[in-house]
Amino acid sequence: MSSVENRHREITSLLKQYGTVHIHDLAERLHTSLDTIRRDLRQLEQQGDLRRIHGGAILPATGDGSYQERSQEIRPERTTIARYVAQNHIPDDAIVFLDSGTTVLEVARNLKPSFHGSAIVLNPAAAVILADHPNANVIMVGGKILKKEMVVSGAGTVDEIRHYHADICILGTCAIHPELGVSTQNIDEKASKSAMIAQSSDVIAIATVDKLETRMPYKVCDTNAVSRLVTGRKLSESYLSNYRNQGLEVIQI
């Protein structure tokens, strides 16, 4: 096996183990130059084995399956983010919008038993989970169900959202880019997300690392419309500074 193949195998092994790799760490670990590592990452990206980001690489996105398939994936990062947000950023008496997405579903699953506020949900699966919560007041917004995203949407959904004002919006994030903002792949979902942001005092975007520095066709909001970005795994400060320069508080779990 050639040295190139050995490096590629080691890089993909580290990615599977940690979810993210950094070029300086790889160069030191593999006893080679930064230029060689950058070339390796380009080749591996062309093969579909990773996605390059500033200063390193992450696992490629896996969001093309059905909602049921994505929600059943074992994603420790997603669970860790959700548990942290539910336990530390949602006060017991808050009025909170819970957006769509598998990570937001985990937030619903991890709300503290002492939570006695109101959860306004767009995800039917989250409503079912919260129906078993001992103290939560659960409000299910109506509308047409987008089956792939498992979320209600449409003009009626947006109109109903505008009847509420929330303390917090937990925003499920399809894509977030420091310069291009938050975006999504469905125009109806874009409208409901934008409405929730407008009706909330505080917006917390939650995103696994594969959603960072990406974009989708429909822009939801500018990056600075988000108060905090909660993500998993340790990324370099130079990478995260692109978000902090837009006014976001970035929290890594």
Automatic annotation (TrEMBL):
The keyword Calcium does not apply. It holds the Pfam family HTH_DeoR. Keywords: DNA-binding, Transcription, Transcription regulation. Residues 4-59 form the HTH deoR-type domain. GO terms for molecular function: DNA binding; DNA-binding transcription factor activity. SMART domains: DeoRC, HTH_DEOR. InterPro entries: Carb_Metab_HTH_regulators, DeoR-like_C, DeoR_HTH, NagB/RpiA_transferase-like, Tscrpt_reg_HTH_DeoR_CS, WH-like_DNA-bd_sf, WH_DNA-bd_sf. This is DeoR family transcriptional regulator.
